[in-house]
Every structure is written in structure tokens, then in C-alpha cells.
Task: structure prediction
Amino acid sequence: MTYFDLLSALIILIVGIVLAKLLAGIFKNGLKKTELPELVAEFLSRFVLALLYVAVILATVSALGPDISSIVVGLSAVIGLVLGFGMQDTLTNLAAGIWLATLRPFDKGEYVSVTGYSGSVSDVGFMATELLTPDNKVITIPNKVIWGSAIENATRMPTRRVDVNVGISYDTKLDQAIQVAMDLMKNNSMVLADPAPAVVTTELADSSVNLQLRAWANTSDYWGVKGDLTNGILNAYKEAGIEIPYPQLDIHMNKE
Result:
């Protein structure tokens, strides 16, 4: 190996890295013009960039001369045998990441719940997926864990049903309580007329008759409707003189 070989290898490495980034950028921009989701486009562009980096490394090693190349190949084989067993999780995460990007149980920006964690999908990498919580925390979950778990996607569908639970006294006229709740939902501009809102009796509890307000809304309006109905039903029942009871326990004592 001569100084010329070292210089050639260095030039190949630098130029190769620059070209790899340039080609990966062009590839990514080309994908943006297609109908592929942003999440899939980012994953594929990263995969292409990784392959180009491997090609640059191989070209750099080859430029060092046959002696160095044979040594590197031999060491790579030994290292590959040593790390082979330890790479099982890495390969599993990579395969799971490919499946997630292909089958798209979620896209970037969608709000999901998985393995007990909830947040908006901010990134899907080769090894892990990142969720951004509403209080601005980043949760990193290995792809294999996500792929092997149930995934709840709260924002994939254009509409969602908003459920608000409330209890009324047993002395209250049920029809009146239902009508007040129905009027509240119908007067909310964010509540959809189709499907129509409804009020159902869910339980005859120890201290109350439990009702559930069910209103459909656009997914983007979900939390707004949830807050409006939760606050609104309290005020509406107070104005109508309908009691929302506290939990009660009657104790009867016998005197002997």
C-alpha cells in the first residue's frame, strides 16, 4: 500500500459520501412527486442512502490495494461470525420497520396507542419508531415490539364518536335528562347530524342512573367536542335542576 493508495481511498470516501447524499436526496424528491405517504418515502430514501454508503465503503477499501482488501474481508468474516447472534434483534427490528412502512398501520403525524404508550408518530427509522406525546416527550419504541402488538390509530378515520359519561339521581325524570343532553349536542356546531347523536342508559349504579352522550364529530374536532359536552352537560343539568349525585352509602344500625 502506497501513499497514492491512501490518497485515492480518501478521495473516493469523501466524494462517495457527497454523491451518496446527493443521489439519496434526488431519490427522495422523486418519491415526493408520487402518491407514496411521507413515512414510506422517508424510509425508502434512508434505505437507499444506507446501501450507497455500503458501496462507498467497499470502493474505499478496494482502493487501498489487494493486500488491505483481503485483510479487511477476512476480519469482516470473523466479526460477522462473532456478531451474528447479537444481530438477531437488529435484523428483526429492520424487518419490522420494512413491514410498518409497507403496510402502513399508521402514517407520520397520526395519533396512535401501542404497548401502553400514546403519541403522534414523528419518525419511523430502521430500528425504532418515535412517538411525540401531547406534553412534548419523545418515546422511542423498537419496531419489533410495535409490529408484535395491537396498534390503536385514533386519527386514521375522518370521523370519531365522542362519548361523555354522566350520572343522574334516581329521582330525576329520565326523559327530561335525555332531552336536555340531546339539545346540548344538537346545538353544538361541531357535532355531526349524521350519524345522529344519541343518549343511552349504560348502568343502574348504586347512587345514580348512568347515561352516556354519544356524538359524532370530525376527527380534528374530537377534543373540542369532548370538552364542550363535558362542561356543557354539567351546566345544562344545573340549569334544569337535574341532580348529578355524589356516591352515597346508607348504613342501617340495629339496636339490641
